[in-house]
Amino acid sequence: MYQHLFGPVPSRRLGMSLGVDLVTHKICSLDCIYCECGRTTELTVERKEYVPHDAVIKELDDYFKQNPDPDYITFSGSGEPTLSARIGDVIAWIKDKKPGVSIAVLTNGTLLCHKEVREALLPADLVMPSLDAALVSSFQKINRPCAKINLDHYIKGIADFQKAYTGKLALEILILPGVNDSREDLTALKQACDTILPDVIQLNTLDRPGAVSDISAATHEKLLEIQNFLGKDRVEIIAAAAQRRETKAYRNDMESAILETIHRRPCTPEDLASILGTHINDINKYLSVLEGEGTIESMRQDRGVFYQTCKK
Ligand code: SF4
Predict the structure, then answer these.
(1) Which of 25, 32, 132, 141 to mutate to test the pocket of ligand 1 (most atoms within 8 A of CB)?
(2) Nearest Cα to 249, choosing from 281, 204, 203?
């Protein structure tokens, strides 16, 4: 089993996507209240080699020798990938070895204010920074940032990147009712979008329980309202979990294994990843679908969020 690669996973947006995790769980510059990976344990903006570069390259090389090419190689995982000081080197290596495979970077975008981070991501085909708030109070509330992050620099960093970038920049905004959906919030977000000029804005909401319990998902009607406010021609609403079942990489055998396991006893995503020998992000995709269609339910306990089959 690989330590730094996961999947290919049935990505909601990228088809068959091989994940690359360049930081260890859970190192991030933000501690978002909706984070599916739980609380950030190391809140930092320090860039360094969190996992050995040579080990990542060795795994990628091995993967390519033994498997068909994925649609995308996606830098994501259980922390912020641009905290890795070697992300540019890994991207360059993939582009050299597999020029036909697209590269995506899912990032919170907070480090794009640094020139070396912007330059590292330029060869990627798709960069998806997130921006959930453009007002300091809401930013603090929803993203609980590292103290060294300045919101204006964060927004300017994404805008500066977009000016030089020739790939596709999709800005992701996650809406939590009562947290970042006030008229003031949406007006500030609209201004930030006008500054950044992303190729597309992807509107999203909570799929599953986040790091805190008293938050809820926005309704589809609310997302439609916000889509209209931000500009219908540039905003798309991310498909609901149930639609993800339609992606070609959705594996029914993995779904069955998850259901059989939690039918015997409730499990956390971490338990399932360990029992089934796959990455937590892979597990999370299936849990989203199953919870979205009402096959399983979640409950919060001291050790984390547990999943069990619904008792109908
Ligand atoms: S930026 Fe991503 S990984 Fe970091 S806390 Fe937020 S949702 Fe989690």
Answers:
(1) 32
(2) 281
pLDDT of residue 292: 75
Cβ of 176 below 6 Å from ligand 1: no
Any atom of ligand 1 within 6 Å of the Cβ of 28: yes
pTM over 0.90: no
Q: Read off the pLDDT of residues 127-149 as tens digits, 9 standing for 90 and up.
A: 999 999 999 999 999 999 999 99
CATH architecture for the domain at 251-312: Orthogonal Bundle (1.10)
Of 20, 10, 22, 13, nearest to 83 (Cα)?
A: 22
CATH architecture of structural domain 5-250: Alpha-Beta Barrel (3.20)
pLDDT per position as a tens digit, 210-241: 667 788 889 999 999 999 999 999 999 986 55
Q: Where are the domains of the chain?
A: 5-250, 251-312
For residue 152, what are the CA distances in angstroms to 30, 141, 188?
A: 15, 16, 12
